[in-house]
Amino acid sequence: MPDLDARALLVEALDFLNDHPCFSLRRDRSRTSYQLAARIDAFLAPDKTVLPIVAAARVRWPNAHILRIDPDEQTVQRDGDGYWVRAWVHVDAAGLADVGAAPNNRYAHAVSALPEITRQILLADFLGDEDFTAIAARLGITTQEVEQHIADALAAIAQSLDRA
Description:
This protein is mainly α. 59% of the residues lie in helices and 7% in strands. Strands 1-4 form a two-stranded antiparallel ribbon. Strands 2-3 form a two-stranded antiparallel ribbon. The N and C termini lie far apart (43 Å).
């Protein structure tokens, strides 16, 4: 099981233990869910060391006002000759407010043209009621697949809006 999937499974287990606190464990009745949850929590706690590629990205883009790399990010993925470092892209709210009816209609059409599962994942993410782990668990896919569906959706919507 890839590390990302294992971590997602541990996050899901921790959520379950937090939702159902203080029951004894089946194999060792003297241990409680609190003890197991504390061990999982400690394991998932971000390592304080900074990955070299994340440090390089932070040095390279410290004043990029549209990009933010989370200070606690510990996950990178090698891809060909480079790395993926998780980051946030800033979208100006004032710019979004200026969107008229025609772009809204194009946007709605672009969303409706997405494959069903991609649209479901995108809308679940936009609603914000579930994180990637919960979406993945509900749909029986990995968190990496959730991320890929969202990336595909955003790329397809951008292409659709650029064409019109």
